[in-house]
Amino acid sequence: MSDTNQQPGREVFSSRAAFLFAAIGSAVGLGNIWRFPYVAYDSGGGAFLVPYIVALLTAGIPLLFFDYAIGHRFRGSAPKSFHRLRSWAEPVGWIQTGVAFFITIYYSVIVGWALLYAFKSLSQPWGDDADSYFFNDFLRMDASHLMTLDFVWPITIALLVVWVLVIGILVAGVDRGIGIVSKIFIPLLAVLFIIVVIFSLTLDGAAEGLNALFTPDWSALKNPTVWLSAYGQIFFSLSVAFGIMLTYSSYLKPRSNLTGTGLVTAFANSSFEVLAGVGVFSTLGFMAMQSGVPIKEVATSGIGLAFVAFPTVISQMGGFLGGAFGFLFLLSLFIAGITSLMSLLEVVVGAAQDKFNLSRSNAVLGIGGVMAVIALILFPTTSGLVSLDIMDKFTNSVGIVAVAIIAIVVVDWLLHRTEELALHLNAVSSFRVGNIWRICVANLTPVVLFVMLFQEIITLVDTPYGGYTAGQVVLFGWAVLAVIFIGSMIMTIIPWRGEQFLAGPPGSDFGVRTARKLEARPPKQAIELDDTAATTKEEKK
Ligand code: PFF
């Protein structure tokens, strides 16, 4: 059997460590640092850990395995993997790619801000009014226009730097770019962030901050919204079900312990989240004490936390100490952001590379270049915050949730392929999955996600998001969703270029039967069989 027709070597992560750090780098992002602490505080404090852990075990980890299984078994980017599952399922992969496309472009500008603010911490140009500085001096925000082409130059340059960096990393390759950078940046991030947290614990008022965060409000557990928030947080934070983990696992060697690695990723991600909670609330405790107000008045999340509250604290500390603390915090945010950004961009690059049979560098430079230009037109302008805010809301609250439901419904409800994925996971992994896993993925998760989506859509239809004008919300919100959806159909219709193995059932080598055979063999052979399945079919073409 020759494998001359085999797709010229799909790249692989050379070691488990490279993949593991890349997966952790993807999961640990802005969401961990600026989203978790406030969500936990706002949803029952210490008591939130209960729904959080339940959501982690019943949705986060099961979906992580689900993503890993699809990417690894079908060895392709999202569209290719879904095409291999069944050709009509290809649009699901493109919807995932589309969601990643839009998240990548706006996420990149926040990473750029973090880079600029890290350096600004050293001189603290905001004085004692970080709020007005951020919106008026730094962003020069103008919410009254749909779109201005009035560029804010420092942000434009920072954004350009971010794009040059990620494009450079991705051109270097999956293993030599993403793998190596993750192996360096993630341990570095851990060290920097632990220093930030330890330092924050020594601040006056830290204890009050931690009490505010961790004092359990058990009555919150009776509130369904708190449970939904827990699922929402886990879902966002682990980067599951929209192509990222699927794409990364497609670069794993055939013999890879998927579930074992997944458990480590999930555990590391949650540990980082709790650590961020400690650091953020100790700091907010200090801020409350300095300003003489209760914690609830300073508690915040997102952009307000990183670019207003933290800078305020930095000035309150003042001098060298404030500068060093701010620099380390914002640098951590930058590192956490850029490793997630690489993974988001890789979803789009991988998809383009597969579909058009491109070399890695052409795919990265081509598609990355186009995305960089779009990001540079939309976000570093005076109207950039408006488009960013709306796009973030719609891609996250609607896009990610909807595509996760669609993926589960297609793979399990319509194609009945979850068993095959379970067999695949068990054939290659240490930790075995069974019926409970399937129930979590196929029954429980879609129901929870559907309730979340339904509520969000009702609210979004009811009141224009964030008090923006209808034009702004339609253009950067609803139209983006429409583009993702229509774009996925168009991309599916375009033929695959080059000789590619794309076949799916009926009669293909994928399916429960092969998976069963695979499971019955000792791991090494099992994988060889799995690989040959792909090659043989290709040869027949
Ligand atoms: N999980 C990463 C984070 O928490 O920031 C990456 C990410 C997930 C970014 C989902 C954006 C997103 F919508």
Automatic annotation (TrEMBL):
Signal peptide: none annotated. It comes from Corynebacterium uropygiale. InterPro entries: Na/ntran_symport, SNS_sf. Keywords: Membrane, Symport, Transmembrane, Transmembrane helix, Transport. It is a multi-pass membrane protein. The keyword Transmembrane applies. Belongs to the sodium:neurotransmitter symporter (SNF) (TC 2.A.22) family. Residues 522-541 are annotated as: Disordered. One of its GO terms (molecular function) is symporter activity. One of its GO terms (cellular component) is membrane. This is Transporter. The chain crosses the membrane at residues 12-34, 46-71, 92-119, 151-172, 184-206, 226-248, 298-318, 324-351, 363-382, 394-415, 436-455, 475-494. It comes from the Bacteria. It is found in: Membrane.
